[in-house]
């Protein structure tokens, strides 16, 4: 299309302002969300055929030199760029950036109202969607949730289309009852996975919550999360991000075992056009996308040895180059990694670099297995059930759920509740019995599952740590439970 609208993330009024502009352009524009850090990049990537770019409310405080260069390149192509804002630019931006584009700034009204005046559109009908607090209609609540869901998909799944689709629906006046299946799936997924919290009142979870809150205050500290599969390692990583000063910046999650080792460098650092077969356009990598925010690397223990040096390079100083490029870039990213592997054992076996392990293991968090704090099953299961069925579980149902050890941890518990929902099964004793039978062929403890290290000394350390956490990290209680001297328990810790 001839027109491109770029708006911000984080505040509902950004989306509403874009809807007002889109209405003024009679729907004839592409819409995309962008952060101030990525603004120069998106301007550089503006497709041929675009004649007008409207930047709505996005701050110009990123890389001003790169932004100016991108604006000059667009001007040479005959593209008109207009910045519309309810906040004035800084002195340096007024000097070096604003002369390269048109600008409309009015600090006396909201951003949607400035946009409305610019495009000769009455912004009043859109304002309820942008205002915080107060009683609102069901339609306004639904759209606010849709915007949150679309931003969730951008932050956690790198889906950049959902946000534009939500804005386009609002601009066209589509009622929530008329939303398509794709939009409904986005909202349904968001309802299930949004705001992941650490649920439970056990000493283990309380200790974990306290540590998460403490670590979140230090936005640059690297964190290594240890725990079995299904314990909620990504949930903990999200909590650290959401409670930190980086909360309004991106959070990107990546599974290190999900990509061919030969593609990891491109995935981490991005590539330039023509860097390899199929690279028909330049693309940023995860470190560049997460700049200012948090990058969560799950299953770090599965990263091939020859690929570990790639990651070590950027950890030295945050600097890297895209594949096929010659320009050094910098990313300010908090790195959180997670594994269910015994990394020290892998270091001894020559399967994990010792220098990388030391770089990652600045702050270590261990998430207890669900069988270590079974008293929390009530809160976890009942909270899930209440959110999905608007009623509480009975005491009998809770008792049936607690009569199982869940080798798959919280993920397995939620899957069991999902099954009960699909089958409309209220007899949880029968449900759990069937579940046991279905999983009889699987190992029902960590040792049989092969998750424990092979060396006896490492197994002892693992078990002492497990009992220590189970006892609320009280050394005396742990030693008593282990039936060993306090100093012996301390030695293994």
By oligomeric state, this entry counts as single chain
Looking across the biggest beta sheet, what order are the strands in?
2-1-3-4-5
Largest sheet report: 5 strands, parallel
Straight-line N-to-C gap: 62 Å
Number of helices: 22
Characterize the overall form.
Answer: globular
Q: What structural category characterises the helix and strand content?
A: alpha/beta
Mean pLDDT: 88
Q: Might you state the CATH topology name of the largest domain? A: Rossmann fold
Low-pLDDT segments:
443-450
Number of domains: 4
By CATH, the architecture of the largest domain is named 3-Layer(aba) Sandwich
Based on CA atoms alone, the radius of gyration comes out at 26 Å
Which CATH class of the largest domain? Alpha Beta
Tally the beta strands: 14
| Helix fraction by DSSP (H/I, runs of at least 4) | 40-55%
Strand content: 5-15%
Task: Describe this structure in a few short sentences.
With 493 residues, the protein is an alpha/beta fold. It is built from 22 helices and 14 strands. The protein has four domains: 191 residues, Rossmann fold; 164 residues, P-loop containing nucleotide triphosphate hydrolases (Rossmann fold), CATH 3.40.50; 69 residues, Helicase, Ruva Protein, domain 3, CATH 1.10.8; 37 residues, no CATH class.
Commentary on this structure:
This protein is of the alpha/beta class and 493 residues long. It has four domains: 3-193, Rossmann fold; 203-366, 3-Layer(aba) Sandwich (Rossmann fold); 370-438, Helicase, Ruva Protein, domain 3 (Orthogonal Bundle); 456-492, no CATH class. Helices cover 46% and strands 12% of the residues. The chain is built from 22 helices and 14 strands. The chain has helices at residues 12-24, 39-44, 64-76, 91-96, 111-119, 138-157, 161-171, 181-193, 203-216, 233-242, 264-269, 286-289, 305-315, 343-348, 354-360, 377-389, 395-402, 409-423, 428-438, 456-470, 475-482, 486-492, and strands at 3-7, 30-33, 52-56, 80-85, 102-105, 223-226, 251-255, 270-271, 283-284, 294-298, 319-321, 328-330, 334-339, 363-366. The strands form four sheets. The protein has a five-stranded parallel beta sheet with strand order 2-1-3-4-5, with helices on both faces. A five-stranded parallel beta sheet has the order 7-10-13-6-14. Strands 8-9 form a two-stranded antiparallel sheet. The longest helix is centred in the first third of the chain and has 20 residues, at 138-157.
């Amino acid at each position: 299309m001839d027109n491109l609208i770029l708006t911000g993330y984080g505040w509902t009024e950004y989306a509403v302002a874009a809807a007002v502009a889109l209405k003024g352009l009679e729907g004839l524009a592409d819409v995309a969300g962008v952060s101030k850090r990525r603004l120069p990049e998106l301007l550089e990537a503006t497709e041929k055929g675009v004649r007008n770019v409207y930047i709505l409310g996005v701050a110009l405080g990123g890389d001003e030199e790169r932004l100016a260069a991108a604006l000059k390149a667009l001007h040479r192509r005959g593209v008109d760029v207009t910045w519309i804002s309810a906040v004035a630019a800084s002195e340096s931006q007024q000097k070096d950036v604003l002369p390269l584009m048109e600008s409309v700034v009015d600090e006396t009204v909201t951003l949607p109202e400035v946009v409305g005046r610019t495009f000769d559109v009455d912004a009043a009908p859109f304002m309820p969607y942008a205002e915080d607090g107060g009683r609102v209609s069901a339609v306004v609540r639904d759209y606010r949730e849709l915007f949150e869901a679309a931003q969730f998909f951008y932050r956690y799944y790198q889906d950049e289309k959902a946000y534009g689709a939500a804005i386009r629906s609002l601009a066209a006046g589509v009622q929530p009852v008329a939303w398509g299946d794709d939009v409904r799936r986005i909202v349904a997924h968001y309802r299930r996975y949004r705001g992941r919290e650490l649920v439970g009142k056990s000493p283990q979870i309380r200790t974990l919550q306290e540590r998460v809150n403490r670590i979140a205050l230090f936005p640059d500290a690297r964190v290594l999360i240890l725990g079995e599969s299904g314990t909620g390692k990504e949930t903990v990583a999200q909590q650290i991000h959401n409670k930190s000063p980086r909360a309004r910046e991106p959070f990107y999650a990546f599974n290190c075992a999900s990509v061919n080792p030969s593609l990891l460098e491109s995935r981490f650092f991005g590539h330039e056009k023509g860097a390899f077969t199929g690279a028909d356009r330049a693309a940023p990598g995860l470190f560049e996308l997460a700049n200012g925010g948090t990058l969560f690397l799950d299953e770090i223990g599965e990263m091939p040895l020859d690929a570990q040096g790639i990651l070590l390079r950027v950890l030295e100083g945050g600097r890297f180059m895209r594949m096929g490029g010659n320009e050094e870039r910098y990313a300010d990213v908090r790195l959180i990694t997670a594994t269910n592997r015994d990394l020290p054992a892998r270091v001894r076996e020559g399967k994990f670099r010792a220098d990388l392990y030391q770089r990652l293991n600045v702050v270590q968090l261990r998430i207890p297995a669900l069988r270590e704090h079974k008293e929390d099953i009530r809160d976890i299961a009942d909270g899930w059930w209440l959110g999905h069925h608007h009623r509480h579980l009975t005491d009998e149902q809770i008792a049936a759920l607690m009569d199982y050890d869940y080798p798959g941890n919280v993920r397995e518990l939620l899957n069991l509740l999902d099954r009960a929902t699909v089958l409309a099964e209220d007899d949880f004793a029968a449900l759990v019995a069937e579940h046991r039978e279905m999983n009889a062929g699987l190992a029902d403890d960590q040792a049989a599952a092969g998750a424990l290290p092979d060396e006896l000394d490492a197994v002892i350390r693992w078990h002492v740590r497990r009992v220590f956490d189970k006892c609320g990290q009280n050394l005396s209680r742990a030693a008593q439970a282990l039936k060993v001297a306090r100093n012996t328990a301390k030695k293994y810790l």
